[in-house]
Design a protein that fits this description.
single chain; alpha+beta; Fumarylacetoacetate hydrolase, domain 2; 9-stranded mixed beta sheet; about 20% helix
């Protein structure tokens, strides 16, 4: 794991002749196809037209084909992320249930990695919690105890999701599914192993996090208690969503369970540090990333 997201959608399409001698306006594209979306995501560019999806089935099919193109530069699928795991986020995107995206090897970074500001088109920052699959029996687990037995450990995460739509667009859940649930980059801390404690089922409901800036000012706080279901139930729900699409979890898969803090737009030059409490029984765990401001040369005289 080295080299290892918003009024009703309105598109104003101007038709007709321009006044006087002015050239006609450039038409606004009506939709974004898979290759255009892949190019935009790979180059951290905004998507300026809606993606032609009309149901969860067509949205996930678009996502699968999009990710297949992205793997050429970002590596293989190494895990999955749950998104829209809180009622507030589902309301924002008009979603009835959580959604999922695919995590690629090139999206995952170690603690204290510095990332360029143009890692994404519209980057946000939030704290997250992830689990590492330790046994394929997770696919048949029917109780929380069985799920825990198939998990190797829990990772603190700073996710940097990308909402790569221009401001004129108002993406709904289907559009978000199509762009891989906003998956773009994540700082993944060292795991806290399940074998290190025997009270995980209870402790998982008390994990809290504070997101800080470089001056140690608090940007956001959150807790697994804010989720509307137990973290292990989110694991089961994510597994079941994947199974419906014919995806079976395997040992080593990373499962990101959803945002613990409200998403905030990323500021170039800022350092983000997330301090997790109760993920370990003895002391807090901290991870961080610096968003490097990129130098733009002045225009030539």
């Amino acid at each position: 794991m080295n080299a290892l997201r918003v009024p009703v959608l309105i598109l104003l399409i101007c038709a007709g002749a321009a006044r006087g001698d002015a050239p006609p306006a450039t038409p606004v594209p009506e939709r974004t196809d898979i290759r255009e979306a892949a190019t935009a995501l790979a180059n951290a560019e905004l998507i300026t037209a809606p993606i032609p999806v009309s149901s969860p089935e067509t949205a996930y099919r678009f996502q699968e084909q999009l990710v297949a193109l992205l793997t050429n530069g970002m590596g293989p699928v190494v895990g999955y992320k749950a998104a829209l795991t809180t009622p507030a986020s589902r309301d924002l995107f008009k979603a009835r249930q959580p959604i999922y995206g695919r995590l690629l090897a090139g999206m995952l970074y170690r603690d204290k990695t510095t990332l360029p500001e143009h890692t994404g088109a519209r980057l946000f920052v939030e704290a997250d919690l992830a689990v590492m699959v330790g046994d394929e029996r997770i696919n048949e687990a029917s109780t929380r105890e069985e799920l825990l037995a198939a998990i190797d450990g829990f990772h603190p995460v700073i996710e940097l999701p990308d909402l790569p739509f221009s401001e004129e667009l108002q993406p709904d859940a289907l559009q978000l599914i199509a762009v891989n649930a906003g998956a773009r980059a994540a700082i993944v801390g060292d795991p806290v192993l399940t074998r290190d404690a025997d009270d995980w089922e209870e402790r998982l409901t008390t994990i809290a996090v504070t997101l800080l800036d470089k001056s140690s000012a608090t940007l956001a706080t959150g807790s697994t208690a804010d989720w509307d279901r137990h973290p292990l139930d989110i694991v089961a729900a994510l597994r079941d969503m994947l199974a419906e699409d014919g995806i079976r979890l395997k040992k080593g898969d990373l499962l990101a369970l959803g945002s613990l803090t409200p998403p905030r737009p990323v500021t170039a030059g800022e350092t983000y540090r997330a301090v997790f409490f109760n993920i370990r029984p003895d002391y807090p765990v901290s991870i961080q990333t610096l968003i490097r401001k990129e130098f733009v040369p002045p225009p030539s005289p």
